[in-house]
Amino acid sequence: MSGMNRQGRPSSIDNTAHGGTHSTFTGNKALELEEPLLFELDNPGACGVDLDEPEPFSSRLGNFERQGRIGLASVSEPEVVRHFVRLSSKNYSIDAGLYPLGSCTMKHNPRLNEKMARLPGIGDVHPLQPQQTVQGALELMSELAHWLKELTGMPGVALSPKAGAHGELCGMMAIRAALIARGEDDQRSRVLVPESAHGTNPATAALLGYKVDSIPATRDGRVDLEAFKAKLGPDVAAIMLTNPNTCGLFERDIVEIADAVHEAGAYFYCDGANFNAIVGRVRPGDLGVDAMHINLHKTFSTPHGGGGPGAGPVVFSEALAPFAPLPYVVSGKDGFRVVETEEAAKADGTQPFGRMTAFHGQMGMFVRALAYMMSHGSDGLRQVAEDAVLNANYVLASLKDDMSAPFEGPCMHEALFDDRFLKGTGVETLDFAKAMIDEGYHPMTMYFPLVVHGALLIEPTETESKQSIDLFISTLKDLARAAKSNDKDRFTGAPYMSPRRRLDETAAARKPVLRWAPPMPAQAAE
Amino acid sequence: MRYLPLTDTDRREMLGVIGAKSVDELFRDVPESARRDGLVDLPRRKGELDVERALGRMAAKNVAAGSVPFFVGAGAYRHHVPASVDHLIQRSEFLTSYTPYQPEITQGTLQYLFEFQTQVAMITGMDVANASMYDGSTGCGEAVLMAHRVTKRRKAVLSGTLHPQYASVVKNLSDFADYELEIMPPALPGSSEDIAAHIDDKTSCVVVQTPGFFGELHDLRAIAEAAHAKGALLIAVVPEIMSLGAVTPPGEMGADIVVGEGQSIGNGLNFGGPYVGLFATREKYVRQMPGRLCGETVDADGNRGFVLTLSTREQHIRREKATSNICTNSGLCCLAFTIHMSLLGEEGYKRLARINHAAAVSLAERLSKVPGVEILNQAFFNEFTMRLPKPAAEVVDALAEKGVLGGVPASRLLPGVKEVEDLLIVASTEINTDADRAAYGAALKEVL
Q1: CATH number, domain B67-80+346-447
Q2: What is the ipTM metric for this complex?
Q3: Which among A126, A382, A410 is the nearest to B78, CB-wise?
């Protein structure tokens, strides 16, 4: 032990084995380079672009000419490139290693999809060009809609939502629009949401003014059917259910749940974040789902990009399809046409509830997702679900004795563990996760779902090889054994070897510093 | 299948460890009625070459903006993006990383988000900015909801300067989140809009766009004063963020929230998305902001580092009490914005904005000489509105036949509004050459 840092955590575990506290003059550690903020590289006079001043002309800006300095840094191109390359080296990525974040589906992102998104006929097309000049783009949207409808067995689709949560909002708006059309909007004010749901579900329902009513889980990690039925009533608008659920389990009673929801006059919203587990094998339409969003950035592998952009198309049942929002694409004898105004929809005989976003949605994500779907085909997509489920079950079976699994298998695409195996070790879920960082892994999802204590949710995805998963399993076994054999410092001080050690989140929130500001000028001498 | 590493031998061995006879057994919780034995009715797998051919065929049916004289704007703008931007955002460490929930191994993402927030706050003239929204239009909707929270009122007034699709997004939210909304008629350049008369004690905010939908630059100072006098907030919307290199930022005109569309910096047209919503406000309102925020802190060794912060506003902590349901935002588009803005810097950004303005002035001068054409704008940046002697939609189609993409007919977004039927909204940026403008002038003369 080499002592404690100022937060009372050990500053390293073992000098010889772990690189120790050898310090450098620069703060750099060989390939790992410290990098200042862009604004600290400011070098007035330098510039990363060459632009000629326009020929003299008479300004039409009126009284609106911007005065004074904005404060942006002046930096040349090589310095900008180096700055961002150095920043990139401080990130973990799926290209570099297994990224087992449960519920996030961090799978391989094929570069073919990037290439397709950059075709000039895709990437360099304006959403408001005359429609006869964008027939291929509309065809692509139509083709993607066809694939999504076939894979889900649902007759309607809205492509425009920008991400999963935006899709949820879209789906719930369609449900409310249908209830308004039925004259039951005032009466139906409650939405049922299982305890294990993603936080976006209750947030979405609340945004629409619904009262969120939580459904408890059974001891086997699923919706408590009896408790659920007891909560149904003429004031319920919808249930929002994730399936497979956030414990990685398939809701066995789903058809019965759907029937009961419909019998009560309510609608079934399915959170499709975990569609990867069943794509090509099970169609949500066959389960009685009325609306479901699909995260193209999960199941269909558009890159997560450090937190977006995503895309969250929503599929609809017969009952909700007429309410799907603007815009949508139709095909006729003169080719494809985008219906983008209420006037046009009226002529078309639909009742769109409104508009989610300007323009037509995340085209850049549509093309990537379609390239991914075409590459796999119906056979490959079915294999995706099977391998994703197989990999997760292999992790569950291999680790259930060393760690602790709250629910019996089989699981679907992700394996859930709780913190019972850490009981009495002084190591918590957070510490265990941080120790994984030192071993070269991105941690799994922690403390979610909320229905088990100290949750560790592992989603390996189908694009991991057996060899990669075997190594991951043996690492987790080593860590579990270390925790149980009193090697506590390895965990509570972790990570030791990452670009930064644990960060003080409390200080960040207490006195937020949300932007760089120039240092205060030194006090002028008298 | 090239993306699936498991072999049949692997699968057999793994099933053995699991103790299952087949993969079907792992799906046994699925109700029998919903299990599909066969494949869904879609084509089988394809190699790279075949996928490239299929998508390439679709792409070839579109007219790429770069292949013709191009003057389309109205909320999305074609600008030149330096090569290093697209190269850097494709680095695996940025492209294939997730939301920075584990800050120790995502400092790269967190630091550029901090830099992005700083750049956005600087150019808008505001105190703080968040780590992005989906796009300008959804950011506009979130800004109205935020104003309701800040003022504890539920009525918004939308100026006729606002992009009609942005107004539709806000209206949609108001329909479902049950708040009052007043949408003013389209504010044509040259006409005056007395928005102050519509602000009362129940008003939470007024939403004004500058440059407006018709390209006109608007003075926000009087509106800000009128709003503040009644306890309401001013939300300023800037869909062409390039403009702030040349024109007075809303932060210097009294805006309380500034929403922007950041696409113009670093991001391509992409047929409408993905784009990047900019969202900035005053420091005192920061706890009512939607979306992710990145903040500075220190690590256990005392070194500077960055984390997502104030997350008690967000859905994953607060669930139904969150300020917004937003989760994923526009990470990689923020990065493209940040890199492009870093390359431009203080001088480059200002100069590029001047070049844009010069391009639009030059185009306006040329087109105003075409018989029958009237330019309506008093003050504009890189976009203006022309009144034509016939319906603009017909003219745009006729221009397209001649290989010129000449702008957006106002009637496309405001169908059935008689007074905009002959109006054409035209943008010109640094991508346009004199030859482009000459081609436009000649083609317009022919089709009118």
Answers
A1: 3.90.1150.10
A2: 0.97
A3: A126
